[in-house]
């Protein structure tokens, strides 16, 4: 058995190594706890030309579009505060033609990721979508947004969506170990499928913990180590969005962003202050404390509310005992192989 590989690195190193211009990039988080520090770092490094996937485009999508990093957007919801006449980087980009968008329902967006996660080339979805503009209006995907095929069993027409396999997923979770086993709880949305459908996965977490802690609650693990490419410990890495068990949404920062987003110059000034002039998340938090005081930040810290312990104990954890014998047969591996060879049942 190969020794697990440690994946711990800095956000700048991870983005430089695993995020390329022109990638299909997916924001793994769904509405809450989004990977803000990775979004900031992608903007700082000036990455461009993305086809961006997001099930809930909030500050993250607006900032990437405002930075000129996104050419195409696949989404189910985008903030677009104020509608066509309000403040929104996405709305301005759509109106000036610098951004194209394909709009899906939450179900159909998730179907694309589920297909990609399981290695399918497409997924069937409900035919009711055919009477909506989501089906009729198409942008850069053209005929590939939806396809209608004949069911091989019934002969009926069925609607399908293509699998999505983004080049890289960026995602924020509560905790992970140094090998990249990542644990997440709260509003799950498309988070596991977004990660596992992708070719590369960059994880930020509130804390890096011992692997024994990960093993003590395996049901929280949404990304296994062998699929992770980078893991970065970033406390407050999702601020101003909320992370269950760590901190609440910061309504002050949300309000400041919404006001700034109303105009391109104001939004650029906001990005200069909070993204470009802060070299990392610690500098961002330090600046926040300078502006608003540590007390306001501490008021966001979550109060403990622990779930009841679950017993994962068993009589033993391996079929082999301390003497290297199989618990069922009482034989060693060598003795089992010799027995199989004698009976002509051993195959390489």
Keyword list:
32% helix; 13 helices; Glutaconate Coenzyme A-transferase; 3 domains; 348 residues; nine-stranded mixed sheet; alpha/beta
Brief summary of the model shown:
With 348 residues, the protein is of the alpha/beta class. The protein has helices spanning 11-18, 36-44, 59-66, 89-96, 106-118, 133-136, 191-196, 211-216, 251-261, 264-276, 281-292, 294-298, 333-342, and strands at 24-27, 50-54, 70-75, 100-103, 122-125, 147-150, 157-162, 168-176, 182-183, 200-208, 221-223, 230-233.
Please outline the helices and strands.
Elements: H1 11-18, E1 24-27, H2 36-44, E2 50-54, H3 59-66, E3 70-75, H4 89-96, E4 100-103, H5 106-118, E5 122-125, H6 133-136, E6 147-150, E7 157-162, E8 168-176, E9 182-183, H7 191-196, E10 200-208, H8 211-216, E11 221-223, E12 230-233, H9 251-261, H10 264-276, H11 281-292, H12 294-298, H13 333-342
Parallel strand pairs: 1-2, 1-8, 2-3, 3-4, 8-10, 10-12
Antiparallel strand pairs: 5-7, 6-7, 8-9, 9-11
Helix pairs in contact: 1-2, 2-3, 9-10
Tell me what you see in this structure.
With about 350 residues, this protein is of the alpha/beta class. It is about 30% helix and about 15% strand. It folds into 3 domains: about 1-120 and about 165-305, Glutaconate Coenzyme A-transferase (3-Layer(aba) Sandwich); about 120-160, no CATH class; about 315-348, no CATH class. Strands 1, 2, 3, 4, 8, 9, 10, 11 and 12 form a 9-stranded mixed β-sheet that branches. Strands 5-7-6 form a 3-stranded antiparallel β-sheet. β6 and β7 form a beta hairpin. α1 (about 10-20) packs across α2 (about 35-45), α2 (about 35-45) runs parallel beside α3 and α9 (about 250-260) crosses α10 (about 265-275).
């Amino acid at each position: 058995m190969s020794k697990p590989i440690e994946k711990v690195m800095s956000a700048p190193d991870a983005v430089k190594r695993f995020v390329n211009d022109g990638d299909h990039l997916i924001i793994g988080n769904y509405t809450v706890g989004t990977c803000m520090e990775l979004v900031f770092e992608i903007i700082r490094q000036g990455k461009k030309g993305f086809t961006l996937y997001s099930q809930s485009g909030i500050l993250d999508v607006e900032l990437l579009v405002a930075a000129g990093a996104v050419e195409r957007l696949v989404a189910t919801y985008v903030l677009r505060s104020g509608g066509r006449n309000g403040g929104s980087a996405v709305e301005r980009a759509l109106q000036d033609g610098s951004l194209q968008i394909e709009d899906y329902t939450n179900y159909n967006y998730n179907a694309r990721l589920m297909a990609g996660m399981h290695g399918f080339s497409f997924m069937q979805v409900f035919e009711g979508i055919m009477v909506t503009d989501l089906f009729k209006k198409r942008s850069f995907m053209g005929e590939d947004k939806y396809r209608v095929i004949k069911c091989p069993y019934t002969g009926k027409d069925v609607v399908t969506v293509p699998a999505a396999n983004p080049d890289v997923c960026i995602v924020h979770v509560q905790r992970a170990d140094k090998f990249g086993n990542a644990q997440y709880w709260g509003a799950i949305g498309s988070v596991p499928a977004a990660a596992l459908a992708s070719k590369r996965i960059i994880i930020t977490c509130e804390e890096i913990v011992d692997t024994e802690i990960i093993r003590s609650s395996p049901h929280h693990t949404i990304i296994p180590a062998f699929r992770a490419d980078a893991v970065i410990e970033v406390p407050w890495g999702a601020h101003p969005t909320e992370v269950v068990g760590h901190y609440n949404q910061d309504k002050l920062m949300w309000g400041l962003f919404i006001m700034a987003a109303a105009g391109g110059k104001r939004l650029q000034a906001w990005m200069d202050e909070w993204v470009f002039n802060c070299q990392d998340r610690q500098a961002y938090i330090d600046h926040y404390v300078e502006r608003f005081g540590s007390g306001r930040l501490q008021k966001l810290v979550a109060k403990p509310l622990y779930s009841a312990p679950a017993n994962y104990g068993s009589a033993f954890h391996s079929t082999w005992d301390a003497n290297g014998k199989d618990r069922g047969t009482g034989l060693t591996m060598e003795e089992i192989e010799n027995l199989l060879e004698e009976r002509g049942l051993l195959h390489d």
